[in-house]
Amino acid sequence: MAYFLLTLNLAVLILSFYLFFTRNKLKTVLTEKNKLDREIYLLNLEKIALDGVLQAIDDGVIITSIDGNIEMVSKKALDLLKADLSHLKDRPIDSIISVDSTRNKLFTQDETKLSLTTGEVILAKVSSLPILTEGEVRGTIYTIHDITKEKEFEEMKLDFVTMAAHQLRTPLTLLRSYLSVLSGRILTKLKKDDKLYLDRSIQGANQLSSLIENLINITHIENRLSMQIKQLQIASLVTDVVYSLNVIGKEKGIKIKIHKEDSLPLVPGDPYLITQVLNNLIVNAIEHSNKGRNIDISIRNSPNEITVDVKDYGEGIPYEATKHLFEKFYQAPSHLEAGSKGQGLGLYISKKIIEAHKGKIWVNSIQGRGSTFSFSLPAYQIHPPNQLG
């Protein structure tokens, strides 16, 4: 009997220990379950928030897995692509957007053609951002901005500018001709004030003519018209432009000096357009040079390219202004104060022309010491560029 009671007590003790450890283990399991439930709850909240953000963004958003298959598509993207989620889900992103080797990388395509399921084609700006977790790429976020209407409006605007400029060109040419004839016939007979009025009329007509020509040039450039590519001797073009502008320089007592290296290679380019760039830069240098100072033009041979520097010794340009000089209609404050009558288009046009030739253009300036405008063009290639843009 005593043995039975001892055995029973031992069994009860073992059972008590078992229940104690089981209860603790159960508490641990319940705690882990609560943590897991909370994490699931938080993940659901994040998903709801992400869905809300995706639907609020004006651009279309597509999220892909690391292998490039579509995981999530915003409503805006579905509307833009005119597709159902079932049609896009798990499809490779390459079937919609041409991403090539840019998958899982940060990139932007300014103008991409997207083919819709309806057969339509739209123009879009596409950007991507890799999704990183602990430094590893887990997928990619793509944003799609439809620019079709923007491009259509831009073309309408350019067409209007071209039409208006051409309509104004003919009567303005007649006006300039008549003013020139009138000036030649009666200038010596006019009083001092009348001469001033006539001179200002001629000057205003010339400025308006220059503005119209610049607007036409911008239209040509922004419409990406074909260029007439030839093998160019840059030094010869510089010499011709300087010869034609020497008269203007002499009025301010300015000498234009050319410094060139020997054996310069040929450059592929449109002679008319490159001449226009040289003309813009040298005229600017003359206008903003101090009287009696020289203008130095250097032509240098760099590896695989030719560089032209146009240096003046005028008032210089504020550093902050140099960042905006090549923007459309921008004029540096110092130039405006000096009474410059330009339209802020010459440098913009020059930049577009140089970039169309796969070149670069820039400026270095120190206030009170002058400015150097430079551009470089690639040396002659077997397959030169044949279009603007």
TrEMBL record:
<dbReference type="GO" id="GO:0005886">
    <property type="term" value="C:plasma membrane"/>
</dbReference>
<dbReference type="InterPro" id="IPR003661">
    <property type="entry name" value="HisK_dim/P_dom"/>
</dbReference>
<keyword id="KW-0418">Kinase</keyword>
<dbReference type="GO" id="GO:0004721">
    <property type="term" value="F:phosphoprotein phosphatase activity"/>
</dbReference>
<dbReference type="InterPro" id="IPR036097">
    <property type="entry name" value="HisK_dim/P_sf"/>
</dbReference>
<dbReference type="InterPro" id="IPR036890">
    <property type="entry name" value="HATPase_C_sf"/>
</dbReference>
<keyword id="KW-0472">Membrane</keyword>
<dbReference type="InterPro" id="IPR050351">
    <property type="entry name" value="BphY/WalK/GraS-like"/>
</dbReference>
<keyword id="KW-0902">Two-component regulatory system</keyword>
<dbReference type="GO" id="GO:0016036">
    <property type="term" value="P:cellular response to phosphate starvation"/>
</dbReference>
<dbReference type="InterPro" id="IPR005467">
    <property type="entry name" value="His_kinase_dom"/>
</dbReference>
<feature type="domain" description="Histidine kinase">
    <location>
        <begin position="163"/>
        <end position="381"/>
    </location>
</feature>
<dbReference type="GO" id="GO:0000155">
    <property type="term" value="F:phosphorelay sensor kinase activity"/>
</dbReference>
<dbReference type="InterPro" id="IPR035965">
    <property type="entry name" value="PAS-like_dom_sf"/>
</dbReference>
<dbReference type="Pfam" id="PF02518">
    <property type="entry name" value="HATPase_c"/>
</dbReference>
<dbReference type="InterPro" id="IPR004358">
    <property type="entry name" value="Sig_transdc_His_kin-like_C"/>
</dbReference>
<keyword id="KW-0597">Phosphoprotein</keyword>
<dbReference type="InterPro" id="IPR003594">
    <property type="entry name" value="HATPase_dom"/>
</dbReference>
<dbReference type="Pfam" id="PF00512">
    <property type="entry name" value="HisKA"/>
</dbReference>
<keyword id="KW-0808">Transferase</keyword>
<protein>
    <recommendedName>
        <fullName>histidine kinase</fullName>
        <ecNumber>2.7.13.3</ecNumber>
    </recommendedName>
</protein>
<dbReference type="InterPro" id="IPR000014">
    <property type="entry name" value="PAS"/>
</dbReference>
